[in-house]
Every structure is written in C-alpha cells, then in structure tokens.
Hints:
Blueprint (H helix, E strand, L loop, with lengths): L11 H20 L4 E6 L2 E6 L5 E7 L2 E6 L3 H30 L30 H29 L27
Antiparallel strand pairs: 1-2, 2-3, 3-4
Amino acid sequence: MGMRFETTRLSGGAVALLLAVATAGAAAATENSGRFSMSPSGDGFMRLDKVTGAVSLCERKDGDWACRSLPDDQKALQDRIGKLEDENRALKDENRRLEDVMGLGPDAKPPAGNGAAPGTTPAPKSGPSMPSEKDVDKAFDYVEGMLRKFKERLKKLDEDLAPGPEAPKLPGPGEPPKPDKPGGTTPL
C-alpha cells in the first residue's frame, strides 16, 4: 500500500490573502515587542525607550530593581541651544526697541527741518552731528544764567555771614583788592 497525496489548488486571491496575513502577523510581532529595548550591562541592564530615546541603567539594590535615567548630552545641548536662541531673540527685540527710541532703526523718521528735499531720504550719518549755532547759543545762555545765580548766592552768603560794619568787605568782580591797613601792602 502506498500513500497517496492530494494536491489542492488555491486560487490567486487565496494566496494573496495568506501572504497578507503572514506579513501582518510579522509586523504585529515586531510592534508588540514593546516600547523598551533591554540589553545586559554589568550587574543590571540598559533600558532604551524606543519612543523618546531616553536611556536608563537598571540595577538590583536591596532586592528591588531600580532604574535611573542616564544624562543625555544631546538633550542637554539641545536645551542649551534653545535657551540661547530665546535669549538671542529677546536681545534682538530689545536692540530694535532701543534703536526705535533713539531714532536709529530702519523705520526711524528723520527730524523735521533737516534740510533734505521733501520725499527724499537723507544720507545716513556716519557719526554724531555737530550742534547748530542756535544750540551753542542756548548752551551758553544756560551757563551764563547758572553763573549769575551762583554769583548772587555767594553775595547773599557774604551778607548773611558778615557780623557787622567792622567786617572787611570782599572786593566785587573787577575790583582790585584793598589793603588791610593804611599804607600796607596788598596780600597776594
């Protein structure tokens, strides 16, 4: 007696269906392998989080397993770069704001009466501008007023400190100093 084998023919659709099921099963097995990958290391193992990329060292201490996260230099560098970019952006914004306040920014408008023809942009200045004669006159007038007030205050102070008629009077501006005693010399 011989054995008899029967051959079964499968249609093309059935073959495709079997192939798809086998492929899906292999993909599911790969996906179900877990979020973490473990590999032995010394007395414990290294755990890699496949989603975040974080690495932890897991060791047994006092009968319990504990995993501690290892420092990630790349993440620390990326965090530092992010902070520096934020700081740089803030400094640029502050610089633009100060330029606008000082009238140096690209949107700054030239002061009225700058001598430029209407509708034209004045040439950029390479340094500080010289004050006009009018500005210099104002400055001198201010200084003169200060000196005049100072002189009046000194005169009032002299009057307040003078004990009586026998006190020597200080010479005023433009007056030559007077000798203390008749026939004496003028002190230098």
